[in-house]
Input
Amino acid sequence: MTAQSLKRIKAIALKEFIQIKRDPRSLALALGIPIFLLLIFGYGLSLDIDHVRTVVWNQDASSKISRDFMRNFENSKYFNIVSYTDNYRDIERKINKGDVLMAMIIPKDFSHYIESGKAAPLQLIVDGSDANTATIAMGYVRSVVAKYNIDLINNDFAGHGLNPPPTIDARSRIWYNMGLVSTWFIIPGVIAMIIMIIVALLSSICIAREWERGTMEQLISTPVKGPELIIGKFLPYFAIGFFDLIVGLIMARFLFGVPFRGSYLMLLFLSALFLTGALSQGIYISVVARSQLMASQLASLTTMIPTILLSGFIYPIFNMPKFVQAVTYFIPARYYIVILRNCFLKGAGMSAMWDETLFLFLFAFLMLGLAIKRFKKRVA
Output
């Protein structure tokens, strides 16, 4: 690349910077939206189900056993017993209105079953309109009941001087996120989503805008070559994307408290690969569409929906149907999210991320090559 070529690239990049600066919508999209999305997703989106609103009908309320049993739920952070009742009609009304998610009914002979050494019945009525939350809530109930059963067995056998029956003592140890804080899982995915969507949307209109405003003919008449024009358009948005990345890292680390255990230099290098691919995809769309409206729609369709639904950002890929899992291999955000979570939570090195690095390199090389090859310096 000659000095004249570098000079022309610099001129195109400077022109694009000035264009972005004069367009308040582009500036808001580039600088304001990433911060807004991080705040919304960081504080508003949580996969933790706490304080399940519950109504209780204790038909054996006079018994100390039933009250001790209920104390396990009252002292748990997972349940919020909002009221007690004495009839099914009130339970039905509260669930229908959405005041509670779950109702717990303790039968009148609950303590008799416990004292007789029999399995005591416990009725749960759960609002299944939100199937995922209902499943998690029932899992919490089973966990509390299982703990109560173990304590009951141990206390019963200890009171009679006997040894409890042999049991399996499974002891779990959680790595990387011991508190199972969902924010630590979500924020790296949000960073990948922001970079992919915002950068692709911004770059998708850069060439189309020139065609719509009639300035492309002026650029064609200059000595600027096609690859120089593409690279000159590329550099300003690369800088903006890197700025958004730095803002995301700072907010993740200091605002949301997500630990960072990897190498910053390695993450910046791999982020540069991802940025190159995302920007090149946007520029390629811009070259093909030649219309800002069409370009922005194509960019949204090819980046936003796949990144949110098929990258593993929220929904685990292994739970998807096989043919959908096959499609996810072509979603670059899938690999970048793995890199971000490895760097933030696991502190993994490059040896653990060769596959993701290779794909991001191929994606960036392919998209940039397609954008340069597709752009023709002529009026069609």
Q: What stands out?
A: Residues 52-159 form a domain with the abc type-2 transporter like fold fold (CATH 3.40.1710.10). Strands lie at 52-58, 79-84, 102-106, 123-126. Residues 226-255 form the longest helix (30 residues).
